[in-house]
Amino acid sequence: MTYTKRFDGRKFDELRKVEAKVGVVPNADGSAYFSFGNTKAIAAVYGPRPLHPVFLQNPQKGVLRCSYDMLSFSVTERKKPGPNRRSKEISMVTAKSLEPVVQLQNFPNTVTDVFISIIQADASTRCAGINAAALALAHAGIPMTDMVSSVSTGFVGNTVCLDLTKEEEDYEEDGEKLVSDIPMAFLARTGQMSLFQLDGNGIKPEDLKKVIEAGRKGCQKVYEIQKAALKALAEEKEE
Amino acid sequence: MIRKEEIKEEFAGREKEAEETFSEEIMENREQNQNNNIGMDEEIEDKKERKIVVPGEVIATGINFLPGENAKRDGKDIIATRFGLEDISGRIAKVIPLSGVYLPRQGNIVIGKISEITFNGWLIEINSPYPAFLPISECRGFISKREDLSAIYNFDDLIVAKVNSVKAKGVDLTMRDRGLYKLNEGIVVQVNSNKVPRIIGRKGSMVNMIKDYTKCDVIVGQNGVVWIRGDNLKNELLAREVVKLITEKSLAGGLTEYIQNFLEKKTKEKK
């Protein structure tokens, strides 16, 4: 009943190799690439731009429209192209995790489209997607009161783990799945939580508190990498 | 140089307006780009000292500071609400944006393309989130109700116009001012609207340098559209190359000398 050593040898509070780059889609108003180990996500932001059809417009503020999509080749078993129920749900939670910081009050009747494409999936795809989306929104010059950082945590066996891989997500003991996959997102400055999901077995409240703490620390590390990626844009130009 | 025949064509049958416009154009071409400045170019010249900030980052602390554009107060701190360069002058802490779509302001000179023709005006594409409209009443000269509007400005024509007002519904443009007319010939470059102050330079220094070296007419719209017309394609392409170079290296210091050297080299090569 114990998970004592991680499959890839990482420490329990260690992230996989994280890479972040801004400006990867030249045609978009803002774009970014973000990866957790083998999980790679690209986000492209278009907007604010006119929203059609008119009945979707909001006269108080602009609409944030997120679209999460796993590309067919991102997984071992080819995924049929197009949205499915899972991607619609992830699109919704992504939008909900970004809405608290995005300030679109000055852009009534417009839409800001965020397209997240997963080009390689090894768990934590929605987290990589949210991180890339936050970077892309900043790059696009959308007013935001804070940066959003996301990381997946989990309770594998009976151990708190940070940044799960697919192998860990599917961890079983004696044919029984013993994992709770808990992705979460935090606002960098205020420390508030904007995404919190749990998928799997139940978890005791005391263990949940440990998981949240691990997630919070993980997100702080992610924020530093996101900040560095945005600032690197200037250095590139100086050359 | 602005050609008299073209102005006459545009205002066919309205000779008085044509004469007025022509004499204005000669003066206007130099002044226009200077007037276009939002006043940011001086600050941008000293970019070396400025720090890049990300949304949510604290740019100043203390009750003395006041939040400027793209910044807001959070308790004791002033935080950036947009990705850009922090700018603290005196008590005001603000952020100069490095990216983002063009947001029209009253008085901006923009270069737009006719996208729709309605019964009382034209819808103009100016690369902003809101539609821009040019009513007949804001055109120079008198236009009768029966007149075919497409004869004046047709689909895909490029015009230089000024933003009269910005409302929730959209942007209202006008052509009733010096230096506003339809553009003929030439080539067009599209750049991010945040780079426009850099392309214009301090009091028009950069754009005038490009005009002098390449012997082209250059009009820089605040919405990031740059129109270039020269005597031959080679000069036009050189001017376009320079504009693109400026946008790539916009954050570097000493850009004016760099561009000057580049232009020197390129114009000598031709001889």
Descriptors:
heterodimer; A: 239 residues; alpha+beta; Ribosomal Protein S5, domain 2; 5-stranded antiparallel β-sheet; B: 271 residues; 5-stranded mixed β-barrel; 8 helices
What can you tell me about this protein's structure?
The complex is a heterodimer of chains A (239) and B (271). With 239 residues, chain A is α+β, with helices and mostly antiparallel strands. Chain A has one domain: Ribosomal Protein S5, domain 2, CATH 3.30.230.70. Chain A has helices spanning 85-98, 125-139, 166-169, 205-238, and strands at 18-22, 30-36, 39-50, 63-70, 110-120, 148-156, 159-162, 172-173, 176-177, 179-187, 193-196, 199-200. A five-stranded mixed beta sheet of chain A has the order 1-2-3-5-4. In chain A, a hairpin with a 5-residue loop joins β10 (179-187) and β11. In chain A, α1 (85-98) crosses α2 (125-139) and α2 (125-139) packs across α4 (205-238). The longest helix of chain A has 34 residues, at 205-238. In chain B, β4 (71-74) and β5 form a beta hairpin. Residues 26-47 of chain B have low confidence and may be disordered. The interface between A and B is medium-sized, with 34 and 29 residues.
Instruction: State the helix count of chain B.
Output: 8
- As a percent range, the share of strand residues of chain A is 25-35%
User: Strand sequence of the main sheet of chain B, in spatial order?
Assistant: 8-9-10-12-11
The CATH class of chain A is identified as: Alpha Beta
The percent of residues in helical segments of chain A reads 25-40%
Q: In oligomeric terms, what are we looking at?
A: heterodimer
Give the biggest beta sheet of chain B.
5 strands, mixed, barrel
Distance between termini of chain B?
Answer: 22 Å
Helix content of chain B: 25-40%
Poorly predicted tracts of residues of chain A: none
> What pattern of helices and strands is seen along the backbone of chain A?
EEEEHEHEEHEEEEEH
Low-pLDDT stretches of chain B are 26-47
Q: How would you describe the shape of chain A?
A: globular
Q: Tell me the Rg of chain B in angstroms.
A: 20 Å
β-sheet strand percentage of chain B:
25-35%
Mean pLDDT of chain A: 92
User: Could you give the distance between the termini of chain A?
Assistant: 55 Å
CATH architecture of chain A: 2-Layer Sandwich
CATH superfamily of chain A: GHMP Kinase, N-terminal domain
Provide the structure class of chain B: alpha+beta
Strand tally of chain B is 16
